[in-house]
Amino acid sequence: MAINLLTNENIWFDKYKYDNAELQYYKHLSGSIPANTPVKNTVKKCSETQSAMQGADVELCSRVTTLEKENQSLHKEVEQLRLMLSKLELRISSVEKSACPTPVVCPQAQPNKPDANKPKEVDGDVDDIDLFGSSDEESAEAERIREERLRQYADKKSKKPAVIAKSSILLDVKPWDDETDMKKLEECVRTVKMDGLVWGASKLVSVGYGIKKLQIQCVVEDDKVGTDHLEEEITKFEDYVQSVDVAAFNKV
What we know:
Layout: H1 2-8, H2 15-30, H3 38-99, H4 136-159, E1 166-175, H5 182-190, E2 197-208, E3 211-221, H6 227-234, E4 241-251
Antiparallel strand pairs: 1-3, 1-4, 2-3
């Protein structure tokens, strides 16, 4: 219990040490303590520490001064930027005002006033008055000119040659077997004559197993020759022709 009470008391138990150190310090200042004593070494260390602290304070002061200068320069730059921004806003507002079209003010409706240049109405029925001075003779002349132009256009159109629709057809004519005389088969095909039919080039194409088919080109007029009728005429040569197919059909 007594120990706990002593721990709570504010008592400077080692005060004698500080008193002794202070006494030794003053003796050192008066020169009564040798140079190699521990107290003198301690005083020397304290002086060195104090000088080091003074150097640190000087460095800190210089750094604070540098920061203050940089802060002032930054304040100046920020102020310049603000001025430039305000000038830019003024220029933009002036440009926008000049770019906007001037609003058109509609005039107020005025009461109808009689026009001095407008002719006065004549009493009576104005529908019977012909303002343009037209007559039945002029309308008949205009009708005659119109009919004449229509007749000329019809004559010009009738003299223009009509476009004839034509088609290019590639036929595959197949024989019965490899013993069929292909030269005779082609002669039979070319004997087919029709109005609007023109035969073209031909060649033999191998099918397989020694059998060849005849590919022949022809140009026909669509209004005169049909493919079905042309195939019927070719298949009439039953001794040579087995079948006829349209390999290609193109408009000319």
